C-alpha cells in the first residue's frame, strides 16, 4: 500500500507524514508531494519518496500519484483558486487509479453559510462525483492559528469554537487514510469548545500576564485586520468565520476526533501550555 500526502511541505502535511511513520507505515510507502520540496529533504533522507508538484500542474500531479493506492488530500490555502486546483488533484487521482481519498475540509461544509466553506463544499461534491471512495475530514480551527503572546480580537461573541491542535488533527488524518473502511463519510473534527474570552482567560492563568479578548462587530473586525496589514478579502473571510462561530457553527464536539484518534483529544490547557513553552 502506497499513500500519497499532498501539501507535505506545510505544517499539517508534515505532521501527517510523521504520524503515518509512527503508525508503522514504511517510509518507502509514503509519497510526500509539495511545491518547495527542499523543505522536506530530511524526509527524503529518511526514505520517504518526495515528489514536486503544484495543484496548478496536472501533469506533475499525475506523475506524483502514479502507482499509489491512497491519497491524503490536504486542501490548498489559496482562497479563490481552490476549486480549479482541487479539480486537478481529483482528475489526477482518477487518472492514476487512486482507490481511496481523505480530504481536509471545513466543519459542517454541507450546511454552513460561511464564505470559507464554498470551495470545500465544491470539492466534496467533486469527490463524490468522481466515484473514488472518499472521506471528509472537516477540521476545526487549529489552536496554533492564534497568537497567544498578546491580546485577542475577534467577532465571535459568546460563540464556542472546538479548538484542536494541528498535531491531533494530522494524527486523525493519518488514521483515516490508513483505515480500509469507514462507517461515515464525514467527520466533524474538533477539540475542547471554548469562547475566545475563555481562551484568553486560560492563557492569562498559565502565562501570569493579563491577556484580554476584545469582541468587535464584524465590519469593525475587518477594519482592524486590514489596519494590521491583512488583505481586505482575507480579513473579510476571517470576520465571516467569527460570525459563524457566534451563530454556533464552531462547536463540533470531540466525538469524531476521538473516534479517529482512539484516545481523548489533547486537553486545551495542555495544548496552551505547550504553545506557551
Output the keywords.
single chain; 277 residues; alpha/beta; Rossmann fold; two-stranded parallel ribbon
Characterize the structure shown:
- The chain is α/β, with parallel strands linked by helices.
- It has a domain at 3-144 and 163-191 and 251-265: Rossmann fold, CATH 3.40.50.720.
- The protein is built from 11 helices and 11 strands.
- The protein has helices spanning 11-22, 41-45, 58-65, 82-95, 117-130, 166-178, 196-207, 218-227, 232-246, 255-261, 268-276; strands at 3-5, 30-34, 49-52, 70-73, 100-105, 134-139, 152-154, 161-162, 186-189, 193-194, 213-215.
- The strands form 3 sheets. A 7-stranded parallel β-sheet has the order 3-2-1-4-5-6-9, sandwiched between helices.
- Helix 2 (41-45) links the parallel strand 2 and strand 3.
- Helix 1 crosses helix 6 (166-178), helix 3 packs across helix 4 (82-95) and helix 4 runs parallel beside helix 5 (117-130).
- It is globular, with a radius of gyration of 19 Å.
- The termini are far apart.
Question: Strands, helices and their partners?
Answer:
Layout: E1 3-5, H1 11-22, E2 30-34, H2 41-45, E3 49-52, H3 58-65, E4 70-73, H4 82-95, E5 100-105, H5 117-130, E6 134-139, E7 152-154, E8 161-162, H6 166-178, E9 186-189, E10 193-194, H7 196-207, E11 213-215, H8 218-227, H9 232-246, H10 255-261, H11 268-276
Helix pairs in contact: 1-6, 3-4, 4-5, 6-10, 7-11, 8-9
Amino acid at each position: 500500500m502506497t499513500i500519497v500526502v499532498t501539501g507535505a511541505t506545510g505544517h499539517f502535511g508534515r505532521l501527517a507524514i510523521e504520524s503515518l511513520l509512527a503508525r508503522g507505515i514504511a517510509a518507502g510507502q509514503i509519497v510526500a508531494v509539495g511545491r518547495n520540496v527542499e523543505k522536506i529533504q530530511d524526509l527524503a533522507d529518511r526514505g520517504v519518496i518526495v515528489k514536486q508538484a503544484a495543484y496548478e500542474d496536472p501533469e506533475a500531479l499525475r506523475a506524483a500519484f502514479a502507482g499509489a493506492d491512497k491519497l491524503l488530500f490536504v486542501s490548498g490555502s489559496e482562497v479563490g483558486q481552490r476549486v480549479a486546483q482541487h479539480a486537478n488533484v481529483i482528475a489526477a487521482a482518477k487518472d492514476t487509479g487512486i482507490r481511496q481519498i481523505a480530504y481536509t475540509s471545513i466543519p459542517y461544509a454541507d450546511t454552513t453559510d460561511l464564505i470559507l466553506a464554498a470551495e470545500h463544499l465544491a470539492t466534496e461534491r467533486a469527490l463524490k462525483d468522481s466515484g473514488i471512495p472518499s472521506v471528509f475530514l472537516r477540521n476545526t480551527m487549529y489552536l496554533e492559528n492564534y497568537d497567544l503572546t498578546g491580546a485577542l480580537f475577534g467577532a465571535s461573541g459568546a460563540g464556542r469554537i472546538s479548538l484542536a491542535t494541528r498535531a491531533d488533527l494530522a494524527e486523525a488524518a493519518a488514521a483515516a487514510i490508513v483505515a480500509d473502511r469507514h462507517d461515515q463519510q464525514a467527520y466533524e473534527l474538533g477539540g475542547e469548545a471554548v469562547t475566545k474570552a475563555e481562551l484568553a482567560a486560560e492563557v492569562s492563568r498559565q502565562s501570569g500576564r493579563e491577556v484580554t479578548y476584545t469582541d468587535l462587530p464584524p465590519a469593525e473586525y475587518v477594519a482592524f485586520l486590514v489596519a494590521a496589514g491583512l488583505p481586505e478579502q482575507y480579513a473579510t473571510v476571517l470576520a465571516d468565520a467569527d460570525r459563524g462561530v457566534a451563530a454556533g457553527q464552531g462547536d463540533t464536539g470531540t466525538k469524531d476526533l476521538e473516534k479517529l484518534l482512539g484516545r481523548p483529544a489533547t486537553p486545551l490547557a495542555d495544548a496552551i501550555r505547550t504553545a506557551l513553552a
